[in-house]
Amino acid sequence: MHNPRGAVLRAFGERRIDDELTDIRNDDLRTSDHDLRGKSGPSGNGEPGEPSQGEPEREPHADGQSEARSQVKIVIPADRSMVSLLGSGDELLHVIEREFNADIHVRGNEITATGNPAETALVADLFDELLELLRKGTDLTADAVERTAAMLRAERGVRPADVLTVGILSARGRTIRPKTLNQKRYADAIDKHTIVFAIGPAGTGKTYLAMAKAVKALQAKEVNRIILTRPAVEAGERLGFLPGTLYEKIDPYLRPLYDALHDMLDPDSIPRLISAGIIEIAPLAFMRGRTLNDSFIILDEAQNTSAEQMKMFLTRLGFGSQVVVTGDVTQVDLLPGQVSGLRVVQDILDGIEDIHFARLTSHDVVRHRLVGKIVDAYERHDAQERRLGAANSGRPTKRKHSQ
Question: How buried is 82 (Cβ within 10 angstroms: 0-12 exposed, 13-18 middle, 19+ buried)?
Fold first, then answer.
């Protein structure tokens, strides 16, 4: 059984809890930074000295005030590889050092963190989670370490190791998992509700996780078919000028759905499943007049539906079916004056039983780290534009006097 938060192994005591962590706080061990580096100590042999008594060490502030500093010592069990924990060439250790405002030193299988109490406590929690991830068979990466640290800072009462080890679908030699707490909540909502709306910026896994859930439901025979649809709306380009037949014109708009399928199914089986009607990929306009029973239905890029199209789509729901609607309301490609059906539906259906709205943010972006920063930058810019617009609209306009 995993030890709860705060259950620690004392460095020089005899009681051992789970043989994982040693936490030596100010009342157990106080050494100077000089001692921590192993350059000197009461014993004279370069090892840290015995626990000393007295007030907690305090670091002077620029304003003359002092801040208490805490020391946490983490002892990694002998059966755990330090390379798997800290990375080749200490790659993961460098990530941890960037994530926390604490001095982190490694000697053998002992890790010591020194800094303010809040930061050192988070460092101890982080290594607790990383050890749990390793125990569950997860290979640590820089991305996993960063996400674990972010979850520890943002959430209380949630274990990052429990989030990052949830398997949604095992496909083509790898397991598809949520990478953030909001993604896990989104995946859990699909299991619990008939209709789920996933609203968030690009790169947050909205469509990908929905596709994984759809494939899993098909494999488990919970549904008889998967229906994937998108509105064929141009993003600054004109569909009519593309060469080829109607299907050839539409294909580029549906290509992201094909790409996700290729990640989750044997590519050779996809044409067969499509030919048999088990998987259907079609523009939203093709849904009109149908009743979709025993199906897992995904409407992607739903921000480009009109209010009428959204109503039409949702009323296709038949018995034994499940619907996931995904979209990003900050990237609407509709003509000026048209209202996005995804924006309107939030007010219309909010609070209805068995319908869930999952909202993802830039913190849930799982693409290149710059994508999240780009999303945040655009949100700040849009907010500034709205403020300027509101300010300008409130100004009295000057009247032009005729000469």
Answer: middle
